[in-house]
Specification:
It is a single chain. The protein is of the alpha+beta class. It has one domain. It contains 3 helices and 3 strands. Strands 2-1-3 form a 3-stranded antiparallel β-sheet. The longest helix is centred in the last third of the chain and has 9 residues. The two termini are 20 Å apart.
Length: 71
């Protein structure tokens, strides 16, 4: 498993997800954009906030389930 930074653009929600590959995330959550590196404007504060959105947290599990196009 690896860790990938992803974004849900309409809300600007950034989070890290664990998966075997970027394509696994794209297949499961087509509404998310997986990036190779944080954007140029990324700050340590954004990093902290993104890492707090833990996919094992029940709130974020529900949020991910509610994404459009989720398979």
């Amino acid at each position: 498993m690896a860790e990938f930074l992803a974004c849900y653009e309409p809300g600007g929600v950034w989070l890290y997800l664990e998966a075997a590959s970027k394509s696994d995330i794209a297949d499961k959550y087509p509404a998310l954009m997986v990036v190779d590196a944080p954007p140029p404007w990324w700050t340590p504060d954004f990093e902290v906030k993104a890492r707090k959105k833990n996919e094992r947290d029940p709130f974020w599990q529900e949020w991910l389930k509610a994404l459009p196009g989720r398979s």
